[in-house]
Structure formats: structure tokens, C-alpha cells
Specification:
heterodimer; A: 198 residues; mainly alpha; B: 276 residues; globular
Amino acid sequence: MTDELIRAVAQADTPANMVTAVQNLAAAKDVAAIPTLIAVFGYNNPSAATVAAAALTEMGEIAVPQLLSQIDDYNYGARAYSIRTLAAIADPRAIDVLITAAATDFAPSVRRAAAKGLGNLHWHKLEPADRETALKKALETLLFISQDSEWSIRYAAVVGLQALAKIPDLQQPIRTRLDQMLATDDEKAIRARVQLAI
Amino acid sequence: MNEPSASEYSAENAPQLTPELALANLQSPDLSLRYYAAWWLGKFRVSHPDVVDALIAALEDEADRTEMGGYPLRRNAARALGKLGDAKAIPGLIKSLECHDFYVREAAAQSLQKLRDKTAAPALIKMLDGGVAQAVQVMGRPHLTQPYEAVIEALGAIGATEAISLISPFLEHEVPGVQCAAARAMYQLTQDPVYGDRLVKTLSSSDLKLRRLVLTDLGAIGYMAAAEAIAIAQVENSFKLIALKGLLEHQLIPELDVLSVSDNAIQVMNLMDSLL
């Protein structure tokens, strides 16, 4: 059954047929569909990719290992969907991938998705010792990219920091940085987003 | 455009410049160094008065010519002056609207749009002479007789309400980009939502480049009613974020530096957050 649905995705000959085939595959909610759904990110079909991302997000943790191992290093469009999906699932096993993407990817769409995701991971799923290290790394990364020259990266950093401030221990450094941005950022839009965050 | 665009310069193959060196290079015997320096000074917004003066002088350059009679250095100087935001450049840019190089006129109109000075209105209005009937493709060139999009957008940005009756016929021009520019300017000059809604409708065009262009227009006029339509448009998120940033900034104008944000502003930011 799922094999047929997977074949239908491979054989879709128009963008519209592709969307339908991916919708049908997504509806099967079968773990065997995971690699195909991830591959859809690389087909340059935003509607199909959105359906695939929603399906993978709904599958949740079970999709995380393959999402992590099948990130497309050569297609930033596909990579942005992978990072967005990992951010939405919020499994903390994604932290290293999100940190690397937020800090070093050349594609702003990838960096923004990672920055937002870094604030929202399910930290309680980590062992206490790992949790402390992970939170520290996430905070450091977001503080670092909150100084990026590109406004949309700083915007995403504020969104990430706002979410991370739900952790009581991190509230103080985050507040300090947000106050600083409110006073110094030359983009009105960023100052407005900071106001919303604090 | 038949010349390299700014984005084609990459850090590796470009000479390492400082503001001082770029300023000196504007007088270099190597014309390509002059051309690059003018772009560089705009890109890095080197707004020193000496730089502004040198770029204004470069608007009269005769040395750097293309085989078609174009003025590459003048084009880059005109573009840079728009980025530097110094009103001293306005008279020179207005004069450049009469240059016989189309791309110099286009760059000057775009920069005058950024500088938002009403004294440019008569010269810009003159470029609409002959109306839509004259606004035709130049034989063998990839452009119309005048840079209508830039001219109309500039008239809208500087609030030239006296041009409304001249701009409105361009809503029916055959080039979609010109129609969009007219709708954008008409909205700015009349605040009538009919024109904003026209742009929103164009967001469902089958032409991706046109959808991107319309996002820019909606951001520039800050048309709040378009917020949801922008967020779901079939365009890359980066373009949507820039458009929504434009909407957000329009919402913030009256409350700059006040520690509160309006419901409209919050609505826009929530949409922006969802696009990260």
C-alpha cells in the first residue's frame, strides 16, 4: 500500500500531481514514508514540501533520526524545510544541527528557521547534565547571531531568545541583551519585536 | 540591464577598498576602478561630504562610455547617491533625469524616490510627457522610452498629488510592472484602498517575478489590509518578510520610541514569526 503511494510520488509528472501524491502518502501516516517525504523537500515544489513537512512534524520524534541524517548539504531550499521541520518537532537531539545551521549556514532562510527552533526545543527530555550544556550552547548561539548584520537574522534571534527566556535561569542574560538591542538596534522593526518579547 | 549588477561582485575578486581608497579611485585612470568605487561607496554607505561631492561630480563623467553611448560611471554614481541620503545630491540627480542614457535616468529616478524631495516633481512629471501612448518599447532595446516604473514610484513616494491625473492612465499600461508602479503611487497619493487591493489581487498572478515585485510594492506602501495575503503568497519567505517589515514600519511611525506596540503591529509580527 505505502509502496504504491511512494511510487506515485516518484512518478508524479506535474507539480499538481506531485502535491496530490504527497498528500496521499502523508495521509497513510506510515514510517516507511519518511525518506520519501524528506526527499520531497528537494523537488522545488513549495506546496508539496509544505505538505511533507506537516506530515513529518505530525509523526514527530520517530522522524527525527532520518531528518537529521538526510539533511541536503547542497540544496538550501531543501535544507530550510528540514530545519523548519526539526524546529517544529522540537526534539532536543536536533540541537547540534540547529546550532550549526543558525551560526554558519550561508542561507538566511535556513539560519532563521534554526534560530527560531533553538528557543523552542523540549529541554525537559534531556538528562539534567546534558540539559545544562545544551541550554548554554543555545543561549550562546542566539546571543551571537543577535548581532548579525542582516536584520531578518536578528529578528529570528529575538524570537528564539524570547522562547528561551521561559527557562528561569536564562532570563537575566536574555533580558540584558534584549534591553541592549532595544537601545541600539537601528531597525525599527527589530526594536518593535524586542518590545513584544520583553 | 546590460551591465553587471551589484550582486555579481564577490568579495574574492573585488579589490579590497577603504573609504579613502574608494574616493581616490573615483579619479583613477582605470575606468573599471572608478565604476567599482562608485558602487562600493554606495554599498557601504560612505556618506562623508567629500564622497558625496565626488559622486555628484561623477554624474557629469564623460570618460566612461559603453559602445551604445551609455554612461556606466554616471549610473553607479546616481545609484550610490540614493543610498547616501544627502539632499545635496538632488539638483544633480534632477539634471540626470535628462541624460540620454536610459539607465542613468532610471537610477536617478530611483534615487530621487529614496531622497523624497518634492523639488524633483516637475522634472519627473515631464518624463510622463505623451502619456501611455508614448510609453512604448524602444526598438532593439529591452526597455521603454522612459523608466516609467521608477518615475511613477518616485512621484508617489514624494507625494506629488499634482501628478495623479497623469499617473492614473498608467494603471492600464501593457507592462504589468508599470501597472503595479501606478497602483502603488495612486495608493500613496490618494490612500484609496482600491489601489492597494489591485496590488493584492496581483499577488495571485502566475508570474513569480511579478508576485515578488508586488510584495515590494505592498511593503513600500505599508498596506495593512494585505498582511494575511502576503503571508500566504506563493513566494519565498525572504520576500514576504521584507514586505511585512514594510507594513510593520508603517504601523510604528506614530509611536516611534514609545514602549508599546499596536494590535496591528502585533498581528504583523505574529505573521513574520510564522515565516521564520
